[in-house]
Amino acid sequence: MCGRINVSDNEGIRLLLESMGMDTWPTREPRFNVAPTQTLDVVILQDEPVLTPMSWGVSITLPGKTGMVTKRIQNSRDDKVWTSRLWKPMVEQQRILVPVNGFYEWKRQNRKLVSAFHITPAVGNAMFLAGIYKSSRESSALPECSVITTAANEPMSAIHDRMPIILNSHNAAMAWLQESDKDSLSQLMSPAGNEALRFTEVSQYVNKSSHEGPQCIEPLSA
To answer: Would you state the CATH architecture of domain 4-217?
Structure first.
């Protein structure tokens, strides 16, 4: 899963984009607790990698109890993207990189949230998550994007059974944007190595999407 994102360290993101030959990261207000439906800055390949805003969560209309209901889906599963009529066109032709400083995950016991974790790269201050997007039918609306998840690696499995796909090298990030071969793309959709991430337990202040600021990432006092 990937339910919230931290994009608060401008310098970390700038260095990450610089590794892709980009120098387009403007100074942003720190955002410690980005939630689905909010705007993300993502990398898309045109003639070269460029930064563009997208709305987090792809709209999907489903039948509900009282009629059709539109939902926003912020995560898509690697084991379904090639077979789903919704996701397949996107993974084939509309892939993005989501630059983040970290993301949050929650551990549950008997379906109850018991602890929150801020998850960051073990090396460096930023990383790319693999994503896909859908263009909006309305020219005034932002494209909508989704973060692709895969099975959890060993450390993540103690918290959750899914994790975002992390592309932690220039070659992997560029391959995600450039490749068109299904086998090559599928190989990129694998769990991060067991040493790739740092897990920091934080307070449940971050649970509420309206909460912002450095308190979201402060380590939980022992």
So the answer is: Alpha-Beta Complex (3.90)
